[in-house]
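Q: Start with the shorter request: fold the first protein.
A: Done. Sequence, then structure:
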Amino acid sequence: YGTTPQFQYLVMEYLEGGDLRQHIRDGLTAQEAFIIIVQIAGALAVLHKAGIVHRDIKPANILFRTVPAADVPAEAEGNRIHAVLADFGIARAINQNTQLTHTGFVLGTPSYMSPEQINGHHITARSDMYALGVLLFEMLTGVLPYRGHSVQGVATQHLMAPVPLLPLEVRRLQPLLNQLMAKKTQERIADGGELVKLLASIDASRGFAVAPPSFFKLHANKLAIVSLILMTSVGISWAGISQLPRWFGDAVPPYSRQSETVITAPAGAQQGSAESMPSANDNTEKIPAANNI
């Protein structure tokens, strides 16, 4: 920046690579999405270390610097993607409780807001982690994780709906998504620095670099069903034997339907259906806090 006798001016880098909205519309590979998350995590690590929370992570605020192909070795082709985090218009110091613009309203973009941000609670770096999780899901699938008829409907899903499942072809990144979008702040990745360390342990082509679950954890549900069947079979066999008179002197009582246990669903119960609606406006919006919804 600088000044002249007539005016003051601010000089900023021109980023000719467009924003993330365009790249999502064009389609991203899982590898490209992972590279972008790594780069934005690095930017947030610097921001959070300085004690600042961005509060408005979304595709429109992620721009791209074009790196000439000639400057990138063939073995590092992915490095041609260079994401830049922009727009700190509503960024605040983490230790300042200034997320309320005025009574009953919060700042942010509804489709990317964390539960605590929607509730009007104190915002920390974990809120940026949640928004980054929403961004990861959108990059991998092309759609937002939560969609609805209204801002309030989307906000309610952020508060109550479970973390959505990724498609099978990118399900290997589900553990990462779960840690970014955990509803409880204490269960979420703490900040950009912690995320950078976690991402370093992940091979984007294989997922988390952790030991596979044990046989019992992997097949817990199946084992439980088998155990239930065995216990039921033993119980039925014992009940049948107990009805036999000593020395088989009398006939075995006939089977009676009255002994069956029948489980019925409540009258009128129906399966809910999810509706796909256009995403919320990308522009930063004011929305009522959850206690006013």
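Q: Next, the second protein, separately.
A: Sequence, then structure:
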Amino acid sequence: VTDVTVSGEPEIVLLRTAGTAREASIQKAVPRLAPRLGTQSLAVRSSGDLLRPGRPGAEDKRDAFGLARVGDSIPSSLLLLDTTFTVNSNADPGDGNCDGSCTLRDAILAANDTAGADTIAFNLPSGELTITPTTPLPPITESVTIDGTTQPGFDGTPIVELSGTAISSDCCTVLFENGLTLMPAADNNTIRGLVINGFTTPAWGAGIDIRASSDDSSDNNLIEGNFIGTNAAGTAAQGNLFGLVVRGVNNTIGGTTDAARNVISGQAGSDGPGAPHAGVLIDGRHSEPRQKVS
């Protein structure tokens, strides 16, 4: 997408909210940019005497609100849109896009390829709530909220399960054999309301791995309301090699309410850091270990 043309009577207001528009005097539907981008958060505000429309980039005509005049072309660099990708298939790998059937792998790839803070929601068919990838899921490289509480039928405990039992120990040459991997460039992520178990490949199998490099780290993440290393009911151990590996700074694990707290159990451990068992491994070698664990 190189630009977007505003048409019709109202002016456009660019928002960073997900799903709903911030208070606007009149809200009207705006077409999505392309089918594969899911749900775009845009709102419009009707013209008024107090708002003098101006063309972005023209300093002598742009008003304090930076609003575009009807028919103006808005550079894509000005569009910071939230996008929701809805997982509706537990298959793997999927077809590589989210414009129809959308797997978790498809949704992660689409979110990585879309600028701005995005959301991965779930609408899986009843009885198909376990996602079993055969190779590791792609690491997360853009800010995203993966929210299992959006699955219909959620009633306070996780019901969407991410299982690593189909990933063989010799399947891969990359060290991303985790349930979910947050790369150093990806900050401000939320992982909420999932069951994550069975990631036990010897190289590095963690339920969730918040990673760091020598000069960067994944920071300001929130991990809440998950069952990590248990069965789907949260009543028996079904561990990963490591439950949760935390690097970076200002990461929050759990919270003060029952709904925000994680259950982390049954980890198998290894001969590496945190041996013989590691439910939560906080590694401060790469950056200041300022984490909150509740």
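Q: Describe the second briefly.
A: The chain is about 5% helix and 25% strand. The chain has a mean pLDDT of 74.
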